[in-house]
């Protein structure tokens, strides 16, 4: 194929893409790229490069880098067409691995953002009387994000799912209140009548609306009440230097630690290291953290070693056998799967 024909083909593909605020882009005809911070007009975007400089650039010569799946590929940027009306919603989606309830085994959970807003999110599950955050991050406009996969047999352990959302755009936008919802999943929900088909998912899904009513800015108002004024007095009387008594559960929480032993976390580069050298480095870090936790009389320390071939875990357990005063058990399966070991440090273990 001639070079001119190739360029024409590439340009055609680019022109068919929809550019949005916040997209990472590269320049077609030169080195470099950046982030789209605003749209000057329908043909020109303002791109912020790695040095923080804003550069006007023709949209047809920008190549978007989409790291996540775009749900609505035909959606125009709302800053170009402010009068365009779309139905903006955010869903918590559960996709089983089969369309027949009796043959379902695994459930894939998603947050599905069918709106023009970017979102910060956190996803938590109920653990006893409290909630435990399993994942948090950002989701772009018209994108879906896989957040968890669970076995249907374990549905009772994963019955309550909490999703917190904070909305924003990288330009002027109508303000939105944050959203927090709790979804209760039971096996009875997975009947054929409750499942719906959607072109973005292979199998019929359960979908729960998390955010539906996107409001205009002037709907968000707050007025000070007498109750608020009384609360402000308490704030003025608060003395941060004054020692505050802690409950036993609060105290224990301050004496817990989580240590990730994955080599990519411990070292910036481990190129050229043998497997034996990597394990020795991980074990030295393990021993150092264990000694520190014992000497400071920690209540608990969790070592995240991953699954792998099991060699690191076996070495860790071998070392811990030299500490009969410590209680050793698998870490929380909900949080770590089979990839962590939990060490309870008794008070008699303080050196």
Question: What do you see in this structure?
Answer:
A hairpin with a 5-residue loop joins strand 1 and strand 2 (about 35-40). The model is unreliable at about 1-15 and about 65-85 (pLDDT under 50). Helix 5 packs parallel to helix 6 (about 310-320). The N and C termini lie far apart (about 75 Å). This protein is α+β, with helices and mostly antiparallel strands. The chain has helices spanning about 5-15, 225-235, 250-255, 265, 275-295, 310-320, 335, and strands at about 25, 35-40, 45-50, 55-60, 60-65, 90-95, 105-115, 120-125, 130-140, 145-150, 160-170, 180-185, 205-210, 255-260, 300-305, 325-330, 340-345. The longest helix has 21 residues, at about 275-295. It folds into three domains: about 5-65, SH3 type barrels (Roll); about 90-220, Sandwich (Immunoglobulin-like), CATH 2.60.40.1600; about 250-350, 2-Layer Sandwich (Ribosomal Protein S8, Chain: A, domain 1). The chain is about 20% helix and about 30% strand.
Features:
single chain, alpha+beta, SH3 type barrels, Immunoglobulin-like, Ribosomal Protein S8, Chain: A, domain 1, 3 domains, five-stranded antiparallel beta sheet, 7 helices, 17 strands, globular
Present the secondary structure layout.
Blueprint: H1 3-16, E1 24-27, E2 33-39, E3 44-48, E4 54-58, E5 62-65, E6 89-96, E7 106-114, E8 118-127, E9 130-139, E10 143-151, E11 160-168, E12 179-184, E13 206-211, H2 226-237, H3 248-254, E14 256-260, H4 263-266, H5 275-295, E15 300-304, H6 311-320, E16 326-330, H7 333-336, E17 340-345
Helix pairs in contact: 5-6
């Amino acid at each position: 194929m001639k070079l001119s024909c190739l360029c024409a083909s590439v340009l055609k593909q680019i022109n068919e893409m929809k550019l949005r605020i916040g997209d990472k882009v590269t320049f077609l005809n030169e080195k470099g790229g950046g982030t789209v911070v605003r749209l000057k007009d329908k043909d020109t975007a303002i791109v912020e490069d790695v040095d923080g400089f804003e550069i006007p650039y023709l949209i047809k010569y920008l190549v978007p880098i989409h790291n996540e799946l775009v749900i609505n590929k035909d959606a125009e940027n709302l800053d170009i067409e402010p009068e365009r009306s779309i139905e903006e919603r955010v869903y918590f989606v559960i996709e089983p691995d089969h369309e027949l309830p009796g043959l379902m085994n695994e459930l894939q959970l998603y947050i599905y953002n069918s709106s023009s807003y970017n979102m910060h999110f956190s996803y938590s599950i109920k653990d006893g009387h409290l909630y435990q955050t399993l994942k948090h991050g950002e989701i772009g406009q018209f994108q879906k994000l896989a957040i968890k996969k669970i076995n249907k047999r374990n549905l009772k352990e994963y019955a309550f799912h909490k999703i917190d959302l904070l909305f924003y755009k990288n330009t002027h936008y109508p303000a939105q209140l944050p959203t927090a919802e709790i979804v209760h999943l039971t096996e009875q929900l997975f009947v054929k009548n409750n499942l719906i088909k959607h072109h973005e998912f292979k199998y019929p899904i359960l979908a729960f609306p998390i955010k539906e009513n996107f409001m205009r800015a002037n709907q968000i108002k707050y007025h000070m009440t007498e109750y608020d004024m009384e609360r402000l007095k308490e704030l003025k009387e608060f003395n941060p230097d004054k020692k505050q008594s802690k409950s036993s559960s609060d105290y224990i929480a301050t004496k817990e630690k989580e240590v990730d032993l994955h080599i990519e976390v411990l070292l910036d580069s481990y190129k050229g290291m043998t497997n034996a050298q990597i394990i020795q480095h991980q074990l030295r870090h393990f021993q150092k953290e264990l000694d520190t936790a014992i000497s400071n009389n920690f209540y608990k320390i969790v070592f995240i070693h991953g699954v792998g071939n099991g060699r690191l875990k076996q070495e860790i357990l071998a070392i811990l056998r030299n500490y009969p005063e410590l209680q050793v058990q698998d870490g929380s399966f909900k949080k770590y799967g089979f990839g962590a070991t939990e060490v309870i440090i008794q008070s008699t273990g303080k050196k």
